[in-house]
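Hey all, sorry for the wall of text incoming. These are the two entities for the joint prediction.
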Amino acid sequence: AQSVTQLDSQVPVFEEAPVELRCNYSSSVSVYLFWYVQYPNQGLQLLLKYLSGSTLVKGINGFEAEFNKSQTSFHLRKPSVHISDTAEYFCAVSAPSGTYKYIFGTGTRLKVLA
Amino acid sequence: NAGVTQTPKFQVLKTGQSMTLQCAQDMNHNSMYWYRQDPGMGLRLIYYSASEGTTDKGEVPNGYNVSRLNKREFSLRLESAAPSQTSVYFCASRRSRDNTEAFFGQGTRLTVV
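and here's what came out:
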């Protein structure tokens, strides 16, 4: 079975500062990894995904994430955040074989301060 | 192109009442999912349907039933609502396991009093 851990429930950061949101996963098989963003009162939308190949993945809005198999991590980074990045961010995992489950972490609320 | 449509957007129920949350997608996706979102707990998978004609339990299925009516529609039923089912419910769909992005509806905010 797969699981996802997001250790930081809230991350405050000043505008134009860098940010890292942490995600660790657990799985006995190879996985696909994702980051989604949820703005207030909206559904989730995909930021980026890792399927295979290069471990550094670039997404929308200047975000990127790095897949680290040895540390079972997929941390999300942005070098300079904007007020508009204030949202909740979810890490998710699915498997390319076996179960069709699509499992999410508990989310990290990013608050960008002026 | 509507994507994933959920109805209703808001609902208040009394304890013990029943209701069905509707979800429809127009992207010809094979897999569909129901999640609930609660503060501090993220999105928890209630039920999913890998393909038309199949449904499986997720992480928190107790108190819910689902129906995959056809390829487009996947409904979630609360037979006897409880205050613990107060939550925001999201439906999502994916084309297949290999096409891995999930598309989400706007959510249904359900309050059980």
